[in-house]
Amino acid sequence: MKARIGIIGTGWVGTSVAFSTLLAGHAGELWLHDLRGDVAEGEAMDLADGAAFYRRCAVHAVALEQMREADIVVLAAGRNGRPDESRLDLLRDNARSAADIGRVLAGFGGIVLVVTNPVDVLTRVVAEAGGLAPERVIGTGTLLDTARLRERLAGRLGLSTQSIHAQVVGEHGDSSVMLWSGARVSGLALRDWPGWQAGEEPALGQQVRRAAYEVIQRKGATNHAIGLVTAELIGCIVNDEHRLLPVSRVQQGACGIQGVALSLPAVVGRGGAARVVEPAMDEGEREALMASARLLGTAFDALSG
Fold first, then answer.
1. Under a CB-based contact definition with an 8 Å cutoff, are residues 285 and 177 in contact?
2. How many domains does the chain have?
């Protein structure tokens, strides 16, 4: 299936999503929109000039309303985080535009992917503003955190990332939860791996949580890794892969969480993130997940305060 992919926001993140999506070959048409119409047109022209180097795809700048005709809409509009600013600090600045876009997409029949931070709260904002089914509004959530965890574990153990099976759940942010108890190196529990010490886990987890801040301090934004993550997620939907991925959506009872958007493993395919699977957790991890849910619920409630 060649899909019509729409990207709202052509800043650092939106253009990286566009570039990664084109190289992955998932789109038959790629539509770009930005409040700065000339920027969206310029990006579309620039990407179209490289057509000889990716699979056939028409790239155009379009009006926001045309996004309703896309198969997948990626929300990448909003300002970036500043050094030492938490993702939740971005909330009020980005929630208003996310709600406006959600209302434009009311009745939308495709899938919405939310990338803009704070991604968990904005996933809920878009779903509620648009009256969209929870499984059809997916935040990239902890998919990037999970990639970062695997990369750092692979470096520590001297292995490829493909050999590491570990995941992060909860908030894409400071309350994210590393599921150390279920981490595996191929089929072996991480905590049984020769030379691994459980005492290393807090520091490595903090590296994962601080990763975005470290990048922002140096270059002003994070964009390439989240572009790759989003393109991978688009591919799972377009190809109906039914892959189990830690993505954000409004939860409907999984792990006892109701109405809050956060990341848990979900089966992702053409119908969205339709089935949430509760991961194995020890008591401490479960408590941390519930604390993350409370934090995100409080942040959302503050929008109406």
1. yes
2. 2
Query: ω before 118 within 30° of 0 (cis)?
Result: yes
What token pair was written down for 50? 């490289």
Asked if omega into 202 is within 30° of 0 (cis), the reply is: no
Both tokens of 73, joined, read: 């809409």
**158 lies in the same domain as 256:** yes
Instruction: Judge whether 172 counts as a catalytic residue.
Output: yes
Number of C-beta neighbours around residue 60 at 10 A: 16
Instruction: Based on the fold, state whether residues 157 and 297 are members of the same structural domain.
Output: yes
Q: Which of 33, 60, 172, 242 is catalytic?
A: 172
Which CATH number belongs to the domain containing residue 67 in this structure? 3.40.50.720
Locate all alpha helices (DSSP H) within the chain, ordered by sequence: 12-24, 37-48, 91-104, 119-130, 143-157, 201-219, 224-238, 283-302
pTM for the full model?
0.95
Residue 139 · residue 261 · CB < 8 Å: yes
* Model confidence pLDDT, tens digit, residues 111-167: 999 999 999 999 999 999 999 999 999 999 999 999 999 999 999 999 999 999 999
List the structure tokens of 98.
């996310």
